[in-house]
Predict the structure.
Amino acid sequence: MKNLQVYPSTTPEVSVLTATFNREKLLPTCIESVIAQTYNSWEHLIIDDGSSDETLMVVQKYLLADNRIRYSRHSNRGQSLSLNVALAMAAGEYVCILDSDDYYLPNHIESRLQYLKAHPEVDFLHGGIVVIGDEFVVDRTNPSRRINLNDCSVNGSFFGKTVAFRTVGGYRNIAFGNDTDLFTRIEEQRFFTQKLTEPEYKTMVYCRTEDSITVQFEKQLNN
């Protein structure tokens, strides 16, 4: 995957990737949490996965106000393919994922960058989440049991070198567990991964909304 040169001078160091579908009410909190970051060299790539609500109108005001925010829209193809579009567009040396119903605390990007620069051998970070709502989700390998989200590989906590994401070809089109699948393939390629467990790294807020992928998957299992 290659990115086109879209910045006239200095390119952002970090690319935040968000795929969204019909979340006009939740998206402002997501976007504004990126704008509020203590670290400023970022771009926010928002991929609209064929929304039928007012997502475009919501995003438009942010596009006009901040040229670090970029937006693209296509027909509904699912989260994985939408994130891969953003990954192909990414100009940053580092990539992080932010689902459109979640948000970052203000020092999220800065804390991760400081860690990676202090530990150059590390390629990929995960962990450090705060869960709003039910902390337990169905285990994708054993749907008969539920596990704590803090024991999972959570998409929104992913922060790593862009080369790691691109080397494995990004996300595969999996309805549930695409984050665990990506993480597993990154480890298989011998990239050095690290889970952040210290309280000061709990800077990604995971919101279990009614249309969350994990919630929808559980509903399908119960039907």
